[in-house]
Design brief:
263 residues, alpha+beta, 2 domains, 5-stranded antiparallel beta sheet, 6 helices, 31% helix
Length: 263
């Protein structure tokens, strides 16, 4: 049994395709895909809360049955008339009777919050971030055969600014399985127990990694976000951790500064 709710989306702005009452796949292909992903994530949360939690990060299997189908391009503007559909395997489950309508309401509520800078739903935020920056106005109308359920109209957006991710240090124990040299990328590749790690390194660190290629090593790595990292320290994992005398280290490194401060 199929259940459906209509969603009308109109985008306005100085884009050539919109001025010709067309929807460019180059401009709106990714946003439409992300809009569907956001709707499925919302549906998954609803189903999981009502029935059984899905595995972390995975969609509830019922959420895969939700779709957004483009019925037509709106002729007198730049937008699409879509239908949110849900192909229900279990026609007797009352939860699914109004699923598309409930998903549409939560979707529009999240769009309204995110466009005002209020953190509400990450998947919806990704959709809004992917839209062309030239858009000046957006309209969303959720309806069912002429019965308007919810309408959303807005112009400029002020999307939430996420706090910067702080760098952090990780330690891995494994073996050196490869290195990179100049004129290419200077790096060291490690094989740990459950992962393989490639990290940028200095030429001195690369040489040290070669010296340790037959031994198990302990590597200290600084990571900043999912794509930035660098090797801080590399040592033989079979040896005790090196711990210098703190007092000697501090006074040796900062002796000149401490003397000037004491004057």
């Amino acid at each position: 049994m199929a259940r459906s709710t209509q969603l009308r989306i109109v985008w306005d702005g100085p884009l050539e395709s919109l001025s010709q009452h067309r929807v460019s796949l180059s401009a709106f292909g990714e946003p439409l895909y992300l809009l569907l992903a956001a709707a499925k994530r919302i549906a998954s949360n609803m189903v999981s809360e009502a029935l059984e939690p899905a595995n972390v990060g995975r969609l509830a299997k019922e959420a895969h049955q939700l779709d957004i189908e483009i019925g037509s391009v709106i002729g007198n503007s730049g937008g699409v008339a879509t239908v949110m559909t849900f192909q229900a395997d279990n026609a007797q489950q009352p939860l699914f009777n109004d699923l598309t309508e409930n998903v549409g309401i939560v979707l529009l509520d999240a769009i309204d919050a995110e466009r005002q800078g209020i953190l509400k739903h990450a998947s919806v935020r990704h959709y809004l971030q992917s839209l062309p920056t030239l858009l000046t106005h957006q309209t969303y109308v959720l309806h069912e055969n002429g019965r308007e359920i919810k309408r959303l109209d807005f112009g400029s957006m002020h999307l939430p600014e996420m706090p910067p991710e702080l760098p952090y240090v990780v330690e891995i124990i494994g073996r050196v399985i490869g290195v990179g040299f100049d004129p290419g990328r200077s790096e060291v590749r490690f094989k740990a127990k459950e992962e393989q790690v490639t990290v940028p390194a200095t030429p001195v660190q690369v040489q040290k990694a070669l010296d340790y290629r037959s031994a198990e090593v302990r590597a200290l790595i600084l990571r900043h976000g999912p794509f930035k990292s660098r090797l801080l320290k590399l040592e033989d994992a079979t040896l005790p951790r090196t711990r210098g005398d703190r007092e000697t280290y501090i006074f040796k490194k900062w002796d000149g500064l401490l003397q000037r401060l004491a004057q």
